[in-house]
Amino acid sequence: MKTFRPAFTLIEILISVLILSTSIVYVMKIYAQNHTQSYYITQRYKDAMYDSLFLTQDALRYSGEHKDAYELLHRSLPIHNDKSREILRHILRTIIVSEEETIHQEEGMPHVQSKKEILKGRFTASYNHIKIELF
């Protein structure tokens, strides 16, 4: 006499649920890590774009000072829109400028001088200003 199995047993169902839940937990963990990394990269990229507002020659004279982007730009760039002014006032950096260093100085060759500008904000970044003086 043959017995037919019309459905899964309770143990088979519990094991399959356990396997599925374990795999879902790992997928969610990987998703959370990727989301955190992509958020960090997005914020870092946005701050790097804002850093370009502080890379003017005027910024080099504010070593050790905490400035906003509007303070640096309003003399050279007329900003009439109130919303633009407000956005620029919320972009803040502490500017640190190193002493000027002579990189290359030989007779008959151009003189190369460099200054390092460090911008401290949410993410610290450093930029080099290189000046080449011909003969």
Describe the protein:
- The chain has one domain (14-133).
- The mean pLDDT is 88.
- By secondary structure, the chain is an alpha+beta fold.
- It contains 3 helices and 5 strands; from the N terminus they run αβααββββ.
- 7% of the residues are buried.
In DSSP terms (H or I, runs of 4 or more residues), the helix count works out at 3
The biggest sheet, with number of strands, parallel, antiparallel or mixed sense and barrel status, is: 5 strands, antiparallel
**Can you give the helix content as a percent range?**
40-55%
Q: What is the string of SSEs from the N terminus onward?
A: HEHHEEEE
What is the terminal separation in angstroms? 107 Å
Bulk shape:
elongated
Mean pLDDT: 88
Number of domains: 1
Regions with little confidence, pLDDT below 50 for 5+ residues: none
Structural class: alpha+beta
β-strand amount: 15-25%
What is Rg?
Answer: 29 Å
Say how many strands there are.
5
In a few lines, what is going on in this structure?
With 135 residues, the chain is of the alpha+beta class. The protein contains 3 helices and 5 strands; from the N terminus they run H-E-H-H-E-E-E-E. It has helices spanning 10-51, 69-73, 82-89; strands at residues 65-68, 92-97, 101-104, 111-120, 125-133.
Q: Which key terms come to mind for this protein?
A:
3 helices, about 40% helix
